[in-house]
Amino acid sequence: MAAPMRPTSLSLFFMLGTLSSSLLCSLISIEAAAAASSGGYQHAQEADRVSALPGQSSNPAMSQFSGYITVNQQNGRELFYWFFEAQTVPSQRPLLLWLNGGPGCSSIGYGAAVELGPLRVKRNGTGLEFNRYAWNQEANLLFLESPVGVGFSYTNTSSDLSKLDDGFVAEDAYNFLVNWFKRFPQYQTHDFYISGESYAGHYVPQLSELVYDRNRDGKNYYPHINFKGFIVGNPETEDYNDSKGLLEYAWSHTVVSNEVFRLASRVCDFRLFNWTDECVTVMSLLFQQYREIDIYNIYAPKCTSKPSSASSSPGVPSAAEAVERRGKGSLRAMGVLPGGYDPCYSAYAEEYFNRADVKKSLHADAFGSANRSWKVCNDSILRTYNFTVASVLPIYTKLINAGLKIWVYSGDADGRVPVIGTRYWVESLALPLRSQWRPWYHRGQVGGRFVEYEGVALVTVRGAGHLVPLNKPSEGLALINSYLSGRQLPTRR
Amino acid sequence: MAAPMRPTSLSLFFMLGTLSSSLLCSLISIEAAAAASSGGYQHAQEADRVSALPGQSSNPAMSQFSGYITVNQQNGRELFYWFFEAQTVPSQRPLLLWLNGGPGCSSIGYGAAVELGPLRVKRNGTGLEFNRYAWNQEANLLFLESPVGVGFSYTNTSSDLSKLDDGFVAEDAYNFLVNWFKRFPQYQTHDFYISGESYAGHYVPQLSELVYDRNRDGKNYYPHINFKGFIVGNPETEDYNDSKGLLEYAWSHTVVSNEVFRLASRVCDFRLFNWTDECVTVMSLLFQQYREIDIYNIYAPKCTSKPSSASSSPGVPSAAEAVERRGKGSLRAMGVLPGGYDPCYSAYAEEYFNRADVKKSLHADAFGSANRSWKVCNDSILRTYNFTVASVLPIYTKLINAGLKIWVYSGDADGRVPVIGTRYWVESLALPLRSQWRPWYHRGQVGGRFVEYEGVALVTVRGAGHLVPLNKPSEGLALINSYLSGRQLPTRR
């Protein structure tokens, strides 16, 4: 469903075609606020309610909603969300937004249906089963497909797709939030947290900064969001340390030879935004090795069955592809992007979410997306995305100083955004140590380790890959419980 | 059963009390050879035959033998063995000796009954079950409890136990071999290989050198052994690189903090045979972290149940123990020794092998061992062992030049003798590269990686810990098949 007042606002936006996006967004807020004050939100909210989904197993009673939120009236940009109220006392639980990365990967396809959502796609895509480690035991849980072009989200202005970059994504996500709160004003005062993994390591801090800044804007253009902090998993954060960590991890975890490791260490200057040809050549040898295993979970079996569609293999490119793209000279240009995962999972979700009855039940059969096939990751978004931000560390510094609650977690069996690089950049923030590195426990075992600095905590999850809530669901739930509740992770067995 | 001619030779040895051990051993050979030529071996061999063991499951027909071989008549040193003929065409299969490490750990308790033997102890020690990945599919398989004091092996001269060191162990093992071949002369001409893991990383090359040297001795003191090569797993080899690797592995695998890693890197000179007090202090912090997980398999659950006997915990010492032993200033003095494993496994084996009916069936109820409780690892051996050899690399160089077939394998999830250190010392041999580092495949997945140098191959086993045949039995079998058959590991999926 689109935002309720679209006809009126559409004409308004046609008259204002040259306005800046920031002013536009404030106008969106104003129009949505009007809707809210008139009580129109109740109708829109109810229209988004999901009664039951095809093949949904019996599960605890749980309110869910899904549909579209307009983020740019003029260009016809609509972002799709799926929202689950907390399983118990939703009125007293925080609101948690979850974002997947890619760029181009769907928070429905990964976060909701494979990782931490309460309804998980069954093995062959025939239906949904209840996930007893769902994070909506802890929070009201909001999944957003972002940016436009991802999953069911769309734009009626195809040129938008060539303009996607981190700033664009953050602006649209911010507009989404503002208008989502208009449709669900009962959550406006809840504590609000942002979470995500992989390339959402960019999205999450960037959106956080926008929310923080606009909350402080004195001109009352922007509604106040009760924003408390963010948590990111295996987050792409700073190219230099992420790349250095990737190389060192591949060697210390037996993926590459001594020769490739030493050569890459010598010829690659990861401080460069674009790698030199020499560096690309040797790094492509490294990625050739990763083609043989699941880079996102290096000890797991690799899925060897074919994905349902040829293009739905968002993980590691072939060596040929990697070398072919070397001209662009960067990790990203080599197509080795985070956020994707195993094509086996993709295939199951793609079976399910492309069913007409499922689309209808989810209110996802809007004009702009009805005839497009839904994919877990959209490779064309990945290819055309404009990578312009090499580091989000300045945002960390700013938001740590602002007193937000910031946690970083890392599944330590991930080769793509490895814990080694994450340790490096967290340490590079040069924050005072609050509590030393030590284990945390889960069910009598070491769940991982954690270290607390003044302003940020780093938590590792032992034996988990890139998608922690998939690989270690019980540990993942314990982690988000600790984060949201403010309780320390268990330090005794 | 003791060697057949004991009464005669005993008196001989009493007369020769001051002879050197090497001359003694040649005399042992001579007396045993006399027994063989007289045909007496057949009786002794049959007396060692094991018909059936208590609680043994039905399994493929398989000849097995066990008993004692005298290695020093004068002092009454008897080594216990358990031998399984190959499951098929034993007359055409090579003979493979397996040694566990410790020092103090039993090749019966680990190798035979937990790892690669055809009869594995059941979970609660009630019986034995057939292991379908047993290495006697590939070879005639000989397990030796070495040195005296380990398992059922014993000495009647308790002062022997204070003299144990690598040289002592190798001499006794050599004497064992010579006399075992007298009892089983039908194997004298078979291709012979030596294998083992952990601290057997010392035993195996040292015994190999002895066999090699004595085969070449021109004086015909020593019978010829058709020795072809050796293979070692997660082998303690060279203190410097093993220790460096241990530290780097602990950091790169999220076990220790940045602070401990950097401090240890600064204050520890692993080239010293005994660490400085400063180094011991910081390394004890590292081992404190390893107390929380299974150092021998860092992603596995740690066994949290109590071992059957308080002293049967051969793995990681408590932090207090570690610090208490710091005076001795070495990794070994800290009690953190390889070879041991999880007390849960120990408990099962100790239940079983301490049964009187089991001892009787195995011919293990000899005078010297009957009243002693059998342990998977004997801590007192570990404590009193004289560590005098910091590196066995000179032996590698010598035996590589001799053209022996030498393989090293490494489960890459082992924190105790980690693959990082093994990579370092293998590279330090400075051998020409024969084939580059690349994956090998097993059942459509990457089993690990391997690299071949002129004279030595290094094979990793992905996701396996210290005890590869226990953690990855199918991969372990594929590995020993490749080694023994001379076929390359599969390089295609």
TrEMBL record, chains A, B:
Signal peptide range in chain numbering:
1-25
- Which Pfam families does the protein's record reference? Peptidase_S10
Does Protease appear among the keywords? Answer: yes
Key words of the record: Carboxypeptidase, Disulfide bond, Glycoprotein, Hydrolase, Protease, Signal
Q: Write down the Gene3D superfamilies for this protein, in alphabetical order.
A: 3.40.50.11320, 6.10.250.940, alpha/beta hydrolase
Q: Name one GO molecular function term.
A: serine-type carboxypeptidase activity
Query: Alphabetically, which GO biological process terms does the record hold?
Result: proteolysis
Documented EC number(s): 3.4.16.-
Cellular component (GO) terms are:
vacuole
As for family, the record states:
Belongs to the peptidase S10 family.
What is this protein called in UniProt? Carboxypeptidase
